[in-house]
Amino acid sequence: MLKAVTLKEIERIFEIIEPLGISREAVVIPLRPDHPGRVRILPNGKLEIVVERDDDLDQWMAGLRDRITALMNQAG
To answer: For residue 53, what are the domain limits?
Structure first.
């Protein structure tokens, strides 16, 4: 169980979003993980990435690119 999002997890997320052309400033990553982890677009247009707390973090990270891409395609 992940108790807090650290620089290690944030750097992994940056490695995923940067090739997608998403600026670090356009992303909000709360420091408190939650279950289920999720990705959504906030009313201010920023991408919020809430890191998974309970399930396998490596698996969750492996699917993050696809979840972000699907969300961006859905949003237009």
So the answer is: 7-75
The answer to whether residue 14 is domain-embedded is yes
pLDDT, tens only, 6-50: 999 999 999 999 999 999 999 999 999 999 999 999 999 999 999
Q: What is the rounded distance in angstroms from the CA atom of residue 57 to the CA atom of residue 59?
A: 5
- For the stretch 65-71, contacts whose Cβ atoms lie closer than 8 Å and that sit 24 or more positions apart, written own/partner, are 65/16, 65/20, 67/39, 68/16, 68/17, 68/20, 68/22, 68/39, 69/20, 71/39, 71/40, 71/41, 71/47
Structural domains counted in the chain: 1
Residue 40 lies in a domain: yes
The residue type found at 27 is V
Q: What is the pTM of this model?
A: 0.94
